[in-house]
Amino acid sequence: MSKFILTEDGYFALTQAGYVALAILILIAMLLTAFVADKKQNTKKINARQLAFSGIALALAFITSYIKYEMPMGGSVTLFSMFFICYIGYLFGIKVGILTAFSYSILQFIQSGGSYFLTPFQTCCDYFFAFTALGIAGLWYQKKHGLTIGYIVACLLRGLFHTIGGYMYWMDYMPESFPASLTAVYPIVYNYSYILIEMAITLVIINLPPVKKALDKTKQFHAN
Q: CB neighbours of 141 closer than 8 A, spacing ≥ 6?
């Protein structure tokens, strides 16, 4: 089956099969990147204690994703759900971080996307790519200020995938109340409005001295 079609203006465009193939390639690339980076990080083989902690963090992320404030334009600010996924990558490295984040993307799809989607590629942008991207925080495993930097990068990358999906599939759903002069940046404003708010609140909380001390103790516990 051909993965390209020739459009009326002479350009090639991906078919539905092409988008599916592209989605699979991106997911494979993300997983391969995680395993290659993991070799360089020289992380320890995950043990039962770490596996249990990852499972608890994944469950907390899923539960807190239900505790949310719906934004006026759409999207929602959750109770630090992204943080729990990023924290796993920071504690145990990129491989565990990406695999945990990918598991979380499946849960998010089941939670809010399983009953309605436009195309397979749109689903990947809004769920599998976006939430798996949170695992990128694992690149800052055991680095100074790694949790803060990794969390920021992961949140921004998640927003990027949502924004790509927005430009490709959701522009027709732009509310009439949105300023016409800002139409070109609608997906950026829509997606980063709630992501950046949650990110900012979370960064303030995790850098409070008592919270930071507790997170450092958790890190030391799993380092032993």
A: 41, 43, 89, 90, 91, 92, 93, 94, 97
